[in-house]
Amino acid sequence: MSREGARLWDKGGHLDPTVERFTVGEDRRHDRKLLKADAIASLAHADMLGAIGILATGELAALRDALQEALAEIDAGRFRIGDDEEDGHSALERFLTRRVGDAGKKIHTGRSRNDQVIAALRLYTREWLLDFRAAVADLASALLDFAGAHARTPMAGRTHMQPAMPSTVGLWAAAFAEALIDDADLIACAYRRNDRNPLGAAAGYGAPLPVDRAMVAAALGFAGVQNNVLYVNTSRGALEAQVVEAAGRVCGTLARLAQDLLLFTLPEIGYFRLPEELTTGSSIMPQKRNPDLLELVRAKAAFVDGQAAIIRSITHHLPSGYHRDLQQTKGPFLTALEEAAGSVMVMRLAVPRLAVDAGRLRDGCTPELMATDRAYELVAQGMPFRDAYRQVGAELREAGRGGRLHGQAALAAALAKDYPGAPGNLALDGARRELRELRDAVESDRSAVTGALVRLAGPAAARLTDTGPAASGPGVPDGR
Length: 480
Ligand code: ARG
Hints:
Elements: H1 17-24, H2 27-51, H3 57-75, H4 88-100, H5 102-105, H6 113-149, E1 154-159, E2 162-168, H7 169-194, E3 196-197, H8 213-219, E4 224-225, H9 229-264, E5 272-273, H10 292-315, H11 330-353, E6 355-356, H12 358-363, H13 371-380, H14 385-399, H15 408-416, H16 428-457
Parallel strand pairs: 3-4
Antiparallel strand pairs: 1-2, 5-6
Helix pairs in contact: 2-3, 2-6, 2-8, 3-4, 6-7, 6-9, 6-11, 6-16, 7-9, 7-16, 9-10, 9-11, 10-11, 13-14
């Protein structure tokens, strides 16, 4: 079934079509997302081959033109990975060979598909991580704004879900903002590890050619070269797991936020309400306005964690070197990224649109919330804490829950306290400063990366994770 030379490793032998289908699996579909990154990495590789004398000036110019043509085809959604091509790398090499003949056949000098796929994945992942870190910062910022707007809105603090102490909507919302700022650290760590040039590792043992790895690193805007060529290969999968784990931490934070909102938007509680446009209906019960979006944020956190577990399970027991098993991590990886980004995006929509019912929140601040504050009044009068604790306990038993503790004045006094850690002091400025630093870091990373890629490949190289038109939409040929 394969035309002569369609498979890169074709040497004239026969491959059973069932084995071919099985080994290719879903790779062509996943590779469509990586094509653009692959073409850009190939430009840097070609420049380097020119610099070390493998490509003559004319050959390099021809290859560059052909690669630019490939980029345009990819952006237009027209680049095809044929049924007889194993993957995107094969399709790209064949495209180049058809366009420029022998120069095309030289592009694979000094590399292997193993470092080629890692390079494409890293470029794709780098942009995704920048976008994700920025989106997480936006969401954290929306939560801080929400916290600031409701810094004085009373809300029952709970432990074991039972009423515990007086608190505010601001404290609740800012807790999630600070969690996301911490989670963003994990994204930054994954970014640093990802931001190294793998090319030159070839199949894991280098190329028998003095390739200039630093030149390629600079051209692609990587912070440096990943030194050990065998480690380049063994870090495939490990790095993906780390990225998905970081995304999974963010999704975990969002799942807890979603879970709280599922409770607090219950009609019986009614602290918050989702606007109609963010809810979905039931096919049978006309009255329903369901918070499906929150439920799916909760589910997708588990899904993303699950993809990290799949990637770890596939890779943890592999011997050193490349193994085809690694191909099987591509799907879980790319799917996890898509789902994690989706969760951040919908929560970013939901948070600023949450309606707050201050009356219901105040009603939820039942008198027993004041028990600890009452005990500390006695402490302030000199009573040892344990005695005060027992006395308030006894008062509560006598008078029924909350008897002597009632009064909005007591609640207001409790919420007005403003020493560090008190309800009246959320210290949002500290979180805002951290967010500014986070945003600055993302923007400086982004401008370094974009600057390099645009210098290398032109303005179209500024974005490489946006999927072309052929990747979606009904009835569009999918290039398979
Ligand atoms: N599609 C393959 C992957 O994702 C590309 C590398 C193939 N390398 C090989 N030695 N068969 O792993």
